[in-house]
Amino acid sequence: VSRSAAGDELWAARAWLGAEKGFSSGVLISCDPSGDITEVRSGVDRSECAGGAVIGGDVCLPGFVNAHSHAFHRALRGVSETVAGSFWTWRDLMYNVASRLDPDSYRELAALVYAEMLLSGYTAVGEFHYLHHGAGGTAYSDPNAMGAALLEAAETVGIRMTLLDTCYLQAGVNGAPLEGAQLRFGDGSADGWAERVSTLLARAPGGAVRVGVAAHSVRAVPRSGLEAVAALADSHAVPLHVHLSEQRRENEECLEVLGFTPTGLLCESGALSARTTAVHATHLAGHDLTLLGEAACGVCACPTTERDLGDGVGPFSELARAGAVLSIGSDSHAVIDALEETRALELNERLASERRGIWKVADLLGVGTSGGARALGWPEGGISAGSPADVVGVRVGSIRTAGGGGDDGPQGRDEELLARILFAGSPADVDSVVVGGRLVVSGGEHVSLGPPEAVAQRLEAAVGLALGASR
Ligand SMILES: [Zn+2]
Fold first, then answer.
1. What is the CA(456)–ligand 1 centre distance, in A?
2. Cα(114) to centroid of ligand 1, in Å?
3. Which residue has the higher pLDDT, 405 or 343?
4. Do the Cβ atoms of 341 and 330 come closer than 8 Å?
């Protein structure tokens, strides 16, 4: 990935500078050597940007943040659509892929999945990583070989990443032991997990990659383990993510065996704080909403996955009103499309509630961008001083986004323009992507991997390997 010189300037013809300012014209973004924004000025002529890069595309938005990803699930795109059933039948397919990957094949697959994310407008990803060990659960000579492969994949293609190293200890709420493909996920005990993760945290990758922690779910981690994960997150001041109440069955089992809802159990375990992000939060009891809101937890909605798996529609706007901070994630990668994921939050809720206009357009953009940055432990200010220079340049004169009128600017009223992008744009409208001041996508092509077709060709080979040669 090419790097513009340290302390560079970037210039955008028009950029979204937050809900109050809306779009501003002639925006000069100054960065420090680490790729963080030091100053943003508008009304600056392009000729004043001496030697800096011009961000292609008609308007710039803050980079979208994919707060929840399992990179290897990408291999199941299409495969899973031909199999009827439920979340649980889909999970069996996913375990088949999990059993085939090693550090080399996973590094390649993940790099291409992250490239797909960049090409769709995501500048950062939270990788919820639990595929830790070799076949049968045998540790690699470097017990963090798989996590290291994912960090390398992110650095290779230039996406910002928080690797959420995930504790996974049991097969169900009843404490059943791991079996089959799950053996690769487990560290034997919460202490075993904490020891391995501490080594990874001590490596302190730095730059645009960081390490956080996760508990897979209340199904996969007993209460003592949840407490250990929460303690580690607190002592290192890193994000803590957890799958929560994606399925009614999880709620029923948790209540029956442990006497708490999954949210209640997390609360009892000290795992609910502003550092916590609950992923899905689809099926909540009334008091669960209060607990998540009062603790100012993050909640990551994964609308395209939730509809793909038939999970249901979570009470996301209600959670936001209760005090939770929403973000989005493409999770199983049924599709990877930052704009689709963001608008799906509003559109799914319209279907469920028979109402529209549930989210203000600017707030929806905030969920897709700053909410995710907060969830992953990065500054959440968008295109402003103190935040990383993560920007996406979008073309607004395409067959999908053309429109206009009004007087705010050449492409129409600010809010309407933003709505056209969010509700009708696609990855084909993404022209440029800047991560930490570096241009990683330009003219719709990844600067080192080439056009989307070239990425697709390599991805096809990597997916073929993950699915197995016998297919
Ligand atoms: Zn997930």
1. 24
2. 16
3. 343
4. yes
Q: The pTM is what?
A: 0.96
- Please name which of 195, 216, 72 lies closest in space to residue 143, comparing C-alpha atoms: 195
Distance (Å, whole) CA 205 – CA 152: 10
CA distance 30 to 7: 7
341 CA to middle of ligand 1, Å?
15
Rounded to an integer, what distance in angstroms lies between the CA atom of residue 67 and that of residue 299? 10
pLDDT at 50: 78
Q: Are 322 and 289 in contact (CB under 8 A)?
A: yes
Residue that is written with structure tokens 């929560």 in the block: 244
Nearest-angstrom CA–CA distance, 403 and 411: 7
Closest CA to 125 of 134, 116, 136, 138: 116
Mean pLDDT to the nearest integer, 96-125: 96
Dihedrals φ, ψ of 326, to 5°? -85, 150
At position 305, the amino acid (one-letter code) is T
Catalytic residue positions, numbered: 280, 331
Whether residue 449 contacts residue 433, with contact meaning beta carbons closer than 8 Å, is answered with: no
Which residues, including other chains, have CB under 8 Å from residue 376's CB and lie 6 or more apart? 65, 67, 124, 126, 162, 210, 212, 239
How high is the pLDDT of residue 255? 96
pLDDT at 86: 80
Mean pLDDT of 5-16: 83
SS3 content of the chain, % helix, strand, coil (to 5): 40, 20, 40
**Neighbour-count burial of 310, counting CB atoms closer than 10 A to its CB (0-12 exposed, 13-18 middle, 19+ buried):** exposed
What CA–CA distance (Å, rounded) separates 68 from 158?
A: 18
pLDDT score for 10: 96
Place of tokens 């928080």: 162
> Rounded CA gap, 72 and 119, in Å?
18
Flag whether pLDDT at 158 surpasses 80.
yes
State how far the Cα of 320 lies from the Cα of 296, in Å rounded to an integer.
Answer: 9
| 3 pLDDT above the threshold of 60 | no
Written as six digits, the tokens of 206 are 């730095």
Q: Coil, strand or helix: which one is 348?
A: helix
Alpha carbon distances (Å) from 413 to 40, 42, 61, 90, 395: 22, 18, 16, 44, 16
The CA 217 to ligand 1 mean position distance, Å, reads 10
